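Title: Comparing notes on inverse folding

I've been comparing how different people in this forum approach sequence design from structure. To keep things fair, I'm posting one structure and asking everyone to reply with a full sequence. Here's the target:
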């Protein structure tokens, strides 16, 4: 059984990991939009945008813990 400190540390680690994942997804979307604006390819897909939104919600929930 985890101590309160260990549980808190694990929660902080999960929140930090979620932030990193959201930031990476966000950067991919920004890069994709930039390529689209430069006429170098299509914009992000609906699936990519929805996935980003889900990551942001998970990140937010983890930071509230």
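Reply #1:
Here's my take.
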């Amino acid at each position: 059984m985890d101590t309160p400190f260990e549980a808190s540390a694990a929660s902080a680690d999960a929140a930090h990991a979620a932030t990193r994942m959201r930031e990476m997804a966000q950067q991919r979307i920004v890069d994709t939009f930039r390529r689209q604006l430069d006429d170098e390819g299509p914009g992000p897909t609906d699936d990519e945008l929805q996935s980003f939104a889900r990551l942001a919600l998970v990140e937010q929930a983890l930071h509230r813990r």
